[in-house]
Amino acid sequence: MNLDTFIGQKGVVATLKKALFQPFHAYIFEGEKGLGKKLLAMTFSKQLLCEKKIACDVCKSCRLFDALTHPDFKIIKRDEDRKEISVDAIREITKDISRGPIFANKKIYIIQEAEEMSTSAQNALLKTLEEPPEYALFILTCNNLERLLPTVISRSLVLSFKRYSASEISEILKSHGLEPRDYVLKLCRGNPKIALDFYDKEVQNKRDYIFEKLLSYDGASFSLIKEFENDFEKFKDDFAFLFETVIYFLRDALMFKKLSSVELITNTDKLEKVIEFSNRHTISHIYRLLQDFMMLEKYPDSNVISDNVLDMIFLKLSGG
């Protein structure tokens, strides 16, 4: 893959193409998770380091890059056992920069999810960004730009990643050997990672589980709700998926209830289940459930959702 074959993000790609022979010293790739920031950072880096500037896959630089052993390329990210990227990790970069490039005319550093740098780490990086060596190039990928220091942002070129069109998502799915499905294109919200996740067997099973639980809900069975709560462990690391799946299902049921039409339904692969649920409940009941889950979706972190909150939500589901 090179910049010519990268799918989507046309504005960002056009900017990077122009910079291949004279790049800026620091870029921030910002946007929501799953939009291909790391992939494009890797693609751009490989092409910059390539002897022919085309990501030829043949030259020594490309072969070293593909093996992740290129001495002029480093990836910095948060260690799994740490809460942030430490100042020591950034100081290691400073030491490495001082040695200069070995094979290429650039030394490239990708800092993944750069907003996870501690304040001291960002300040340490800032010193290098203020007076970088001519051969140094930084690419910071970032899901939340507001968490970066304004001084770091001001010394970088910020490139914002947008959501993809349905045709671009289809092209990405095909490039992974997957057949684009209507419900995936509707539910992924222009995010390739979300689209690809729908083809994961575990995700499919979780989705089916949620639908079956909703369909078996009769508005009064507290034992069923407690069963749902007891199985909530399935979603402890991905509350957003649970809430989004429920919300879109309830939205579909509400739309069908009001319009008796399937044209606006997003879960097209579960059409029979949506219709069955819609026929079983009143508009006001579906709307109330939708409001409850939309409220709960606002919790930014599953860790803040206490047992008491879960009890309250499931009690509401049971008609309490």
UniProtKB/TrEMBL annotation:
<keyword id="KW-0239">DNA-directed DNA polymerase</keyword>
<dbReference type="InterPro" id="IPR027417">
    <property type="entry name" value="P-loop_NTPase"/>
</dbReference>
<dbReference type="InterPro" id="IPR050238">
    <property type="entry name" value="DNA_Rep/Repair_Clamp_Loader"/>
</dbReference>
<dbReference type="Pfam" id="PF13177">
    <property type="entry name" value="DNA_pol3_delta2"/>
</dbReference>
<protein>
    <submittedName>
        <fullName>DNA-directed DNA polymerase</fullName>
    </submittedName>
</protein>
<keyword id="KW-0548">Nucleotidyltransferase</keyword>
<dbReference type="GO" id="GO:0003887">
    <property type="term" value="F:DNA-directed DNA polymerase activity"/>
</dbReference>
<keyword id="KW-0808">Transferase</keyword>
<dbReference type="GO" id="GO:0006261">
    <property type="term" value="P:DNA-templated DNA replication"/>
</dbReference>
